[in-house]
Amino acid sequence: MNNNGHGSVLWFTGLSGAGKTTTAKFLEEKLRKQGRRVELLDGDELRDTICKGLGFSREERFENIKRVTYLARLLSRNGVDVLVSAITPYTEMREHARAQLPGYVEIYVKCPLHVCEMRDVKGLYAKARSGAITQFTGISDSYDEPSNPDITLCTSTATLEQNGDTILAWLGHAAPLEKSTSRRD
Amino acid sequence: MNNNGHGSVLWFTGLSGAGKTTTAKFLEEKLRKQGRRVELLDGDELRDTICKGLGFSREERFENIKRVTYLARLLSRNGVDVLVSAITPYTEMREHARAQLPGYVEIYVKCPLHVCEMRDVKGLYAKARSGAITQFTGISDSYDEPSNPDITLCTSTATLEQNGDTILAWLGHAAPLEKSTSRRD
User: Fold this and answer.
1) A71·B71 Cβ contact <8 A
2) What CATH number does the domain containing B80 carry?
3) Is B169 within a domain?
4) Is B55's Cβ below 8 Å from some Cβ in A?
5) pLDDT of A74-130, one tens digit each?
6) In the predicted model, what is the mean pLDDT of residues B64-87?
7) Is B94 exposed, middle or buried (0-12, 13-18, 19+ CB in 10 A)?
8) Residues ≥6 apart with Cβ < 8 Å to A4
9) What is the extent of the structural domain holding B130?
10) Residue B152 belongs to what H/E stretch?
11) What is the rounded CA–CA span in Å between residue A49 and residue A184?
12) What is the pLDDT of residue A168?
């Protein structure tokens, strides 16, 4: 916890298939082992719950992120560390989240488009290329590269463990006064 | 907290104008003074955030309650006491909430329809009677009276303070083992 009892909100942004959820899950486990209260909010999963029915137009994508932000805010102000895994493609969305969340940490999960497309874990890039799905980030919709993220991770060149360590080191560095208390215990 | 670190979920159900939010706000303040982490989820307010765009058909009302339940679950499993103020008119909705929430406490805020209608704080009953709004609980949509609530409050005959005491007494009685620890401190 930091920010007057608020939890951190580690916001993972990046292309589909860049490794946001994989990295967030890895970190979630690490933080739980430290005895912290943690929740992982996955953009894909939230589209089945509080974001059900929203499409992928610019407006609906923004509404989607507003709801995720609302949820992250409720949790983090109660001392929960929140990990958000969501493409969050537009700069204004990330500005919204930063403005709303005292513990916001922007983590850019960077991976070249051709690598994401080669991985294509969910088969979505193939569908986007064939036109079976539209408004797909990186193919038929834009991704504004973060201009000033708090942390940048490269998943095509660094390992999961290395990236996890980068975040943990950043968190430790960002809150040196708490090293002897909850943050590092 | 109770239920293995889960917070309680005090779910206020009843007609529009029965006094759900008034009672919940009163209790919220009391619980905060006890040093507990508390969130009040108001059904009306959530229709501007995570439930935006949902209407009042049976299906949409249920979807609305599912989202509120989802949010209450995330908070309560992190030790937050959650107060929910929402009409929650159908039995199956309350069964859903009870099944999903380990700390669920059903509080029936009981008030005769004619009293709610006389109060008509938001002017909604007048609109419902004139037909300006449809599917309005108690007028043009049903309210299944709770058959076995944990607590029943009568807002037309008891004062706010009395009702607040009833809930606090119930909470104290329901968790006698915690009387000397967090619950009563």
Assistant:
1) yes
2) 3.40.50.300
3) yes
4) no
5) 999 999 999 999 999 999 999 999 999 999 999 999 999 999 999 998 999 999 999
6) 96
7) buried
8) A102
9) 9-173
10) strand B151-154
11) 34
12) 95
Neighbours of A17 (CB within 10 A): 23
Is residue A70 within a helix (H) or strand (E), and if so which, with residue range? helix A58-76
Q: Report which secondary-structure segment, H or E, holds B132.
A: none
Residue A134, both tokens: 């539209």
Residue B22 Cα, gap to closest chain A Cα (Å):
21
Distance CA A134, CA A131 (A): 6
pTM of the model: 0.87
- Token pair, residue A176, equals 């040196």
Optimal mutation site among B39, B48, B50, B75, interface A, most CBs of chain A within 10 A? B50
Residue A2 belongs to a domain: no
Averaged pLDDT for residues B99-111: 97
Residue with tokens 């889960």: B6
Under 8 Å between Cβ of A60 and A141: no
Probe site for chain A from B49, B51, B52, B57 (most A CB atoms < 10 A): B49
Residue A26 scores a pLDDT above 90: yes
Is this complex's ipTM strictly greater than 0.85? no
Nearest CB neighbour to B74, from listed A39, A53, A66: A39
Is B2 among the domain residues? no
| Alpha-helical segments (H) within A102-180 | 113-119, 124-130, 160-174
What pLDDT was estimated at residue B12?
98
pLDDT at A114: 95
A70 touches chain B (CB under 8 A): yes
In a domain, B183, yes or no: no
Mean confidence (pLDDT) of chain A: 90
The total number of structural domains in chain A stands at: 1
Nearest residue on chain A to B80, judged by CA atoms?
A78
